[in-house]
Design a protein that fits this description.
four-stranded mixed β-sheet; 282 residues; Sporulation protein YtxC; Spore_YtxC; alpha/beta
Length: 282
């Protein structure tokens, strides 16, 4: 029988809830001890040991890691605005829970998986000794270095947050440019490609010469858009009232940028809905 001591009632509850939520029943007892705090007794065998370990890791992630991250955001990086703190915290969680979004090589995703593996081994070792152990002691004395590693995770999340802020500022400046300049065409159709392929509302494809001329005639270099940029610059120069983008990848970064700038004026449709016949070059 595993005997685990928790100083924090919420952590003890979270551990029990995790075990009760499993399909196979487990014998779990809980009582309060004046010296040891909240004592949870689990009648576990080798088969159920892994479940107990997962429950302990769950407590760490939900309670300790969360409090550490928020403490770091506020007291190491000095963010005090609640909305900013919440957003940076969510980015940290995204590194952990959605590694595919950031790529396998993202340092925070890799670091967190390594942390949990070390945590798994320590909890497993403590259980195999067959003695009671304190959750607090393991976290405090065996994993204080996690806190230092989380400082780096928060730093990476703040870098991402700042990139997001810069991006939103950039998008807002382009929206303001559109508001200050009249539309040159009523509708524009775009086919996803490298670069985009542009069509008039009648289905005529814009030639490369027309595209190059558009990029030269407007001062979009003020927004970092140069004459060699052949995706966003022509769209901003034409400033269409309506845009339809046809393709098979709605998450394409270029497409998302256009959708963010033009908002309700832009619509994404699958490529098989493209209304014109001529997709190939002239």
């Amino acid at each position: 029988m595993a005997e685990i001591y928790f100083s924090n009632k919420e952590e003890a509850l979270s551990f029990c809830d995790f075990l009760f939520a499993q399909k196979d029943e487990m014998s779990v007892q809980w009582h309060y001890h004046k010296k040891w705090g909240h004592v949870v007794l689990v009648n576990e065998n080798q088969e159920k040991e892994e479940r107990v370990v997962r429950g302990l890791i769950h407590v760490y992630v939900v309670h300790r890691e969360r409090s550490w991250l928020i403490d770091i955001i506020r007291n190491c990086y000095y963010f005090s605005d609640d909305d900013e703190v919440a957003h940076i915290y969510e980015l940290c969680c995204s590194f952990r829970d959605e590694p595919d979004q950031w790529g396998e090589d993202h340092p925070s995703s890799y670091r967190h998986s390594q942390q949990l593996e070390r945590l798994r081994e320590v909890f497993k070792e403590a259980l195999e000794k067959g003695e009671g152990f304190a959750f607090d002691s393991i976290i405090t004395f065996r994993f204080q270095r996690f806190y230092d590693e989380l400082i780096e995770v928060v730093g990476e999340a703040i870098d991402e947050y700042k990139r997001e802020q810069d991006y939103q500022t950039y998008i807002q400046h382009l929206r303001e440019y559109l508001q200050a300049n009249p539309s040159k065409v009523e509708r524009l159709s775009i086919v996803q490609s490298q670069p985009f392929i542009f069509y008039s509302h009648k289905g005529r494809r814009y030639t490369s010469e027309e595209i190059k001329k558009l990029t030269k005639d407007y001062p979009l270099y003020l927004f970092g858009l140069g004459t060699d940029e052949l995706d966003l610059t022509p769209i901003m120069a034409l400033a269409p009232d309506r845009i339809k983008i046809y393709g098979n990848d709605p998450s394409d970064p270029k497409t998302l940028t256009v959708m963010n700038i033009f908002q309700e004026r832009a619509e994404f449709l699958p490529l098989n809905k493209f209304p014109f016949k001529r997709l190939s070059p002239f």
